[in-house]
């Protein structure tokens, strides 16, 4: 693994004091500033597997990490629609940067849904101060992504956690590692582990073809001491909640950002770097009538995906969490699933069409245009679209509510 540029040994040190953003317009402006900082070096970072540390620091310092924390706790209290737009804007510039804080927001929602007041206050104050939450993700050698083998056991007067995690997006850059384990009674829990912690190792071994700078690799826990006050039981699988819809909303926003980034770069490449097909009879590739029709079709699909993304966020915003029912949680999940279908498909299509429209020279490594497809293909594999179609059809045809977990 090429780590010659990586300086992350002190990422877990206390951050600079972060701002608190309480206006939607300010959050959008901050996201645009992060995107502007990240975009110029995106090709080189992907090529060299060099992390967007400067842009990530700006993300946290500007206060974007706390925009979804309710104002009652001192956070921004902003809408889900703004959260989605923040991720879409940043991911259009660098979707790896967009994915790094993805689980940070899902964990915040989990604490809102399941944490005690004392836990909410402690964790949220850390986030408001600029600390980042990173997940010790699913385990690599289990039957499926929800199976948990890691154990949290009492040893003397200490609680210790042991297990190996993978797909741990954000963990390398986190001040607090959050991971699942089973207690002695097989109760699944979420444990919050501030860094540094003896026995906790974050290994930079992510080797995916895309999203190369998310560091979504291994978290190794060897008898790590866990404070029982920072352990939250996972709810029954039938309990309604918004963690799944929010997590999926952010996933969809990242894919929409990938699509927008690919489309914008395709437009620029067509205008300035590509040649028309010999039979087109035009001076510029941008005047090829078949290419124009193709661009028009894709633009419509991109706008449709963006519209469903905004609609899904609005459904979440209009959901009364104080009166959450299985039906209202399902409505939110289905709205997000509908958006996720289109954002997945348009991200893959835009990143593929970019190469087709640009011609052979679009494949030259100097341009780095292949990163869009690699990013789209990698990120959209988090959960299969075929199961979104199934959940949507079963909901509308048979009135069957979708299952409750972080992938729907």
Structure description:
The protein has helices at residues 24-38, 42-48, 53-61, 80-93, 95-99, 102-114, 117-128, 243-272, 289-318, 326-358, 370-379, 385-398; strands at residues 133-136, 151-155, 158-165, 176-182, 188-194, 200-203, 218-225, 231-233. By secondary structure, it is of the alpha+beta class. It has a 4-stranded mixed sheet, covered by helices on one side. The protein has a 4-stranded antiparallel sheet with strand order 2-3-7-6, with no helix packed on it. Helix 10 (326-358) crosses helix 12. The protein is globular. The model is unreliable at 1-7 (pLDDT under 50).
Overall geometry comes to: globular
Total beta-strand segments: 8
State the secondary-structure class: alpha+beta
Q: Low-confidence runs (pLDDT<50, min 5 residues)? A: 1-7
**Series of H and E elements:** HHHHHHHEEEEEEEEHHHHH
Assign a percent range to the helix content: 40-55%
Distance between the termini: 34 Å
Rounded to an integer, what's the Rg over CA atoms?
21 Å
Largest sheet: 4 strands, mixed
Spatial strand arrangement across the major sheet: 1-4-5-8
């Amino acid at each position: 693994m090429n780590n010659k540029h990586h300086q992350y040994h002190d990422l877990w040190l206390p951050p600079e004091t972060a701002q608190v953003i309480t206006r939607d317009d300010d959050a959008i402006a901050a996201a645009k500033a992060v995107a502007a900082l990240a975009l110029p070096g995106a090709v080189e970072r992907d090529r060299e597997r060099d992390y967007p540390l400067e842009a990530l620091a700006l993300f946290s310092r500007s206060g974007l990490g706390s925009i979804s924390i309710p104002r009652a706790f001192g956070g921004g209290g902003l809408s889900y629609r703004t959260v989605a737009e923040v991720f879409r804007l940043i991911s259009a510039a660098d979707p790896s940067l967009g994915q790094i804080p993805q689980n940070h927001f899902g964990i915040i929602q989990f604490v809102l849904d399941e944490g005690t007041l004392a836990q909410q206050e402690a964790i949220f104050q850390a986030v408001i101060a600029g600390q980042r939450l990173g997940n010790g993700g699913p385990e690599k050698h289990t039957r499926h992504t929800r199976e948990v083998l890691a154990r949290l056991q009492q040893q003397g007067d200490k609680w210790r956690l042991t297990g190996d995690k993978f797909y741990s997006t954000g963990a390398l850059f986190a001040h607090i590692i959050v991971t699942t384990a089973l207690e002695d009674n097989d109760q699944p829990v979420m444990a919050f582990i501030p860094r540094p912690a003896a026995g906790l190792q974050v290994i930079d071994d992510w080797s995916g073809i895309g999203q190369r700078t998310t560091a979504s690799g291994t978290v190794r826990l060897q008898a790590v001491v866990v404070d029982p006050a920072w352990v939250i039981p996972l709810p029954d699988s039938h309990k309604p909640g918004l963690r799944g819809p929010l997590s999926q909303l952010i996933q969809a926003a990242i894919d929409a950002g990938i699509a927008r980034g690919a489309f914008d770069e395709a437009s620029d490449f067509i205008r300035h770097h590509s040649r028309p097909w010999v039979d087109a009879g035009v001076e510029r590739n941008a005047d090829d009538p078949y290419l124009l029709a193709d661009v028009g079709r894709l633009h419509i699909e991109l706008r449709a995906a963006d519209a469903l993304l905004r609609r899904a966020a609005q459904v979440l915003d209009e959901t009364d969490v104080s009166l959450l029912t299985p039906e209202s949680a399902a409505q939110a999940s289905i709205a997000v699933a509908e958006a996720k279908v289109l954002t997945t498909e348009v991200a893959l299509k835009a990143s593929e069409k970019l190469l087709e429209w640009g011609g052979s020279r679009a494949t030259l490594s100097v341009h780095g245009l292949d990163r869009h497809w690699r990013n789209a293909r990698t990120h959209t594999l988090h959960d299969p679209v075929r199961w979104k179609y199934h959940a949507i059809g079963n909901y509308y045809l048979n009135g069957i509510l979708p299952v409750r977990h972080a992938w729907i």
